[in-house]
Specification:
The protein is α/β, with parallel strands linked by helices and 308 residues long. It contains 9 helices and 8 strands.
């Protein structure tokens, strides 16, 4: 049972809803909201306390795209925690291609950099006891309905993963949505590598699925944003089974992922092939590169090129 849980990106959307659901589990004694913006974090804490009737929420402020910010935030974690939900991230948009001080571009840094430092430093100092869950994405195996092809790398070498992380993999044509799938794939492979390194901890990659009520579409290219918000979500997806679910259902995937023994370490769970919602399955059953331990370790090594 997880008595203390840290959730990144917890001031809105799926992260906040996961924090709310965790508060109602009888074993939960503390939920740490790790957020970038202090005023938004305070507002989320107040709202969560009102909705749950519980004063178990703490706040830590950190910018997960900034290594120094994350290391400073780590100083505030005095006692070991049971589980972490690595929820922060998403499609950054046009700014995602801009290279940060780490050498990763903004998209990769926002989704990966701080999460890796956070988890590995907590492990180093024996401050994580049970489970780590990373919010992966249906974009990795592809979303045919949205025209998103499966991630397809030529060699999956360390150099190629590093090129994904700094953006050079995509050449002069940077497509934020395409890059997002590749970045999530790199982070997912890091998680699977970590599962083998630390067999006493549970490492689960979990897609929240196609979830209504999040701000995810807001960072997409204008045409796709318009299509999703005003056509696909309200009209098309509801007419097709297994293509969309509520915020509560998306967040429950994360809550179950860290607490339900049915979800095993070293596996990426997402919707069934061709679906965007509904039951989750092991994605390696049809996206077989996930099983390749060399590729997993190559992703891990590539990420650490950018962590100093």
């Amino acid at each position: 049972m997880n008595e203390s849980i840290l959730v990144t990106g917890a001031n809105n959307g799926i992260g906040k809803e996961a924090a709310r659901q965790l508060a109602f589990k009888k074993e939960t004694q503390k939920v740490i909201l790790l957020c970038r913006n202090h005023s938004k974090a305070e507002a989320a804490k107040k709202d969560l306390e009102e909705k749950t009737g519980k004063e178990i929420f703490d706040i830590i402020i950190a910018d997960l795209s900034d290594a120094n910010s994350v290391r400073k935030a780590l100083e505030e974690i005095k006692e070991p925690i049971d589980a972490i939900i690595l929820n922060a991230g998403g499609v950054v948009g046009k700014a995602g291609g801009k290279v940060t001080l780490s050498g990763m571009n903004e998209l990769a840094a926002t989704n990966i950099l701080g999460h890796v430092i956070l988890v590995e430093e907590l492990i180093k100092h024996d401050k994580i006891k049970k489970a780590v869950l990373f919010a992966s994405a249906e974009a990795v195996p592809g979303v045919k309905m949205l025209g998103m092809k499966p991630v397809s790398m030529r060699t999956s070498s360390v150099d190629e993963f590093a090129a994904v992380l700094d953006g050079s993999f995509f050449g002069n044509k940077y497509d934020a949505l395409e890059a997002y799938g590749y970045v999530k794939y790199a982070a997912t492979m890091w998680m699977l590598s970590m599962a083998r390194k630390y067999p006493d901890l549970k490492f689960v990659a979990m897609s929240p699925g196609n979830t209504k009520g999040t701000g995810a579409p807001d960072n997409l290219p204008p045409a796709m944003k318009f299509m999703l918000k005003y056509f696909m979500f309200p009209i098309v997806f509801p007419l097709i089974g297994g293509m969309v679910h509520t915020l509560e259902v998306g967040a429950k995937r994360f809550v179950d992922g860290i607490s339900d023994e049915r979800y095993k370490s070293g596996i990426f769970y997402a919707s069934k092939e061709g679906k965007l919602a509904g039951d989750v399955v092991d994605q390696s059953t049809f996206y077989t590169d996930l099983k390749n331990t060399i590729f997993q370790d190559n992703a891990d090594n590539a990420i650490h090129r950018f962590i100093k």
